[in-house]
Amino acid sequence: MEAVTIKDIARALNLSTSTVSRALRGSYEINPETKRLVMEYAERMNYRPNPIALSLKENRSRAIGVIVPQIANHFFSQAINGIEAIAYNRGYHVIIFQSHESYEREVVTVQQSVSRKVDGLLISLSSQTSDVSHLKELQDKGFPLVLFDRVSDQLDTPRIIADNYQGAFEATEHLLQTGRRRIAHLTIPPWMSITQERLAGYKDALASYDVPFDEDLVRYCGFGEDVVGPMVDELLAVTPAPDAFFTASDRLALGCLAALRKRQVAIPETVSLIGFTNLNVADLLSPSMSTVIQPAVEIGQLAAERLIELIERKQKAAPAGTVKIPARLVVRESSIREPPE
Question: Which of 159-168, 194-203, 214-223, 237-246 has the least mean pLDDT?
Fold first, then answer.
């Protein structure tokens, strides 16, 4: 079958090719009803822009770069699905890079992506990144840049995140409502945005139930192997011992579950456990794990939309700032416990 062209769409809808072209680009000059008709027909006919023709016409690569700490992380693989869905429908290719949680590799990867002439860059910062001067330099040159999930307020650019504070507050509140009062928090490096937001939600939930914050119940874990077991041992040795664990990432949630089971600590009878995770097997674990689910696909989609708006310099492009998408607490066996009378 021959590919459907803009001319074909224009002929079918009795519109000019320029109107169809602008509607497909989301131009503010085209009224919403016309845009809807064009987009629906294009989707029905499986229209796809020709990226080679577009790049020649517009002197752009029609490619966007995406830098994530690890593709193997289920959150980032879901976010990439959202990014690719939007990019594909808008005629952009996606080039994916990994920083592997390394600041030095992130800097090199940013340079590589720009040298490949991508039109813009989506990035989630590595766990080692506290200095964002390499990105500030790009932004100062007018290069389109959007941060997602792990972000920095040192950059005046769109930032798309989950509502980490709300998710952590609800998870901690759930534990408090079931009578837990010694809630340990395993989290990631303290300079990361998601660490600070989740710790703030945890602290405020404790305060709302008049439970004092205890620094001894918080542990900051790196991203090395076998770091969770020793942290769990340290926490179990605290007096009084924790009666719940709230972890701030997939890796920590699984590591904590394994460590507690290895030490024959009953879940949820002795301690409750909640993760902040996008694990697609959380309900298959034993016990099934209560989790705060991040809207990864939606974050990826919105980040891609914001980047393409910046690339195409739309008059109505969204301003810089942070957009928070609600997270969702899913309660399963690992934290279900009858509250005390």
Answer: 214-223
Q: In this structure, what is the dihedral angle of CA atoms 177, 178, 180, 184, given to the nearest 10 degrees?
A: -80
Average pLDDT, the chain: 90
* pLDDT band at residue 225 under the 50/70/90 scheme: low
Domain residue spans of the chain: 6-44, 57-161+295-325, 164-294+328-335
Q: Helix, strand or coil for residue 329?
A: strand
Place of tokens 């456990």: 273
Q: Tokens representing 283?
A: 């309900």
- pLDDT, one tens digit per residue, over 249-293 is 878 988 999 999 999 999 999 999 999 977 777 877 889 999 999
Q: What is the pLDDT of residue 56?
A: 54
Q: CATH top-level class for 164-294+328-335? A: alpha beta
- Between the alpha carbon of residue 224 and those of residues 1, 123, 129, 180, 256, the distances in Å are 52, 22, 16, 30, 14
Could you please state the CATH topology (level 3) that the domain comprising 57-161+295-325 is classified under: Rossmann fold (3.40.50)
What's the pTM value of the predicted model, to 2 decimals?
Answer: 0.80
227 residue type, one letter: V
Residues 6 or more apart whose Cβ sits within 8 Å of residue 146: 120, 121, 122, 123, 157, 158, 159, 160, 303, 306, 307, 310
Contact 218, 234 (CB under 8 A): no
